Amino acid sequence: MSGVAEGQKFGKTTLKVIASSIRKGNVIEQDGRLYVVLSAENIHPGKGTPVSQIEMRRIGDGVKVSERYKTTDQVEKATVEDRNFNYLYEDGDGFHFMNAETYDQVQVSKEIVGSSAPYLQENMTVKLSMHDLNPVAIQLPQRATLEVVETEPVTKGQTASSSYKPAILSNGVRTSVPPHIGTGTRIVVMTEDGSYVERAKD
Q: For the domain with range 81-139, which CATH number is right: 3.40.630.30, 3.40.50.2300, 2.30.180.10, 2.40.50.140?
């Protein structure tokens, strides 16, 4: 009888999908362990079989794994619920968020937040992917507004089309900005890689 129960247990939490449909932020179950997808790329070599190159991080211990599947291989995708949480604060244990509807608080480890950490701002709404009440992945708003705290001075006569110059943002992230952006300017950047979008409207 136990075989049936096992099947039911996994039937609820995982779903077989083809490897080429896996995206960043998905959670995969492999050998009974959960992995969050950091990046997924479908590679089509000139000859031969198309493959999906998937970089993952094991949720239990943060170990990074790189796997290559045929694009048509079946992968166990764990069902996760995306819920909105507001960012509260960071302490030695990790990052603390609150569910705006239920006021439940969750703690998210530094491994899960990863490179998104500098962009977290108080009360920012983020999506946390929850698997059995455990946060396994985080999705920030695509854009954040930050101030330029250090960059080369604006030089007169430079056209907007000339090359970008390095800048440091108020969250410590290094980025590149157009020549007309000076220190103290608030700009909008993509939270995924810190790239410049536009000068902030506010």
A: 2.40.50.140
